[in-house]
Amino acid sequence: MRYVVIVSYRVFPQHRENFFNLVRSxxxxxxxxxxxxxxxxxxxxxxxxxKFLNLKxxxxxxxxxxxxxxxxxxxFLQEADEMILEGPIVIFEGVHMYSCxxxxxxxxxxEDMSAYFRR
Length: 119
What we know:
Layout: E1 3-11, H1 16-33, E2 37-44, E3 51-58, H2 61-68, H3 71-80, E4 84-95, H4 100-109, H5 114-117
Antiparallel strand pairs: 1-3, 1-4, 2-3
């Protein structure tokens, strides 16, 4: 069963753009190199522009455990350390029940998209 983790960060204002670029490159590296990482979404709060949310969907809880001990996350945290005022704070960790995107992708394409999520 897919496993979801949402993490929040608050960064120093002068590091906001650098942090954005860093989370973006971490997301690309994760989905390309960690087969158990199925999806990464990064968000910036519009009320507090220094607050970021990071949503990751994993193939399983075991894949999440591998991610937590992986080199990509460790390198990200090391590089981000001087930018972060608060965090990382895990605000949600649990099983993925349903996603409208899964249904929509399959319905629009007419294809079985399940292979995409099992990479």
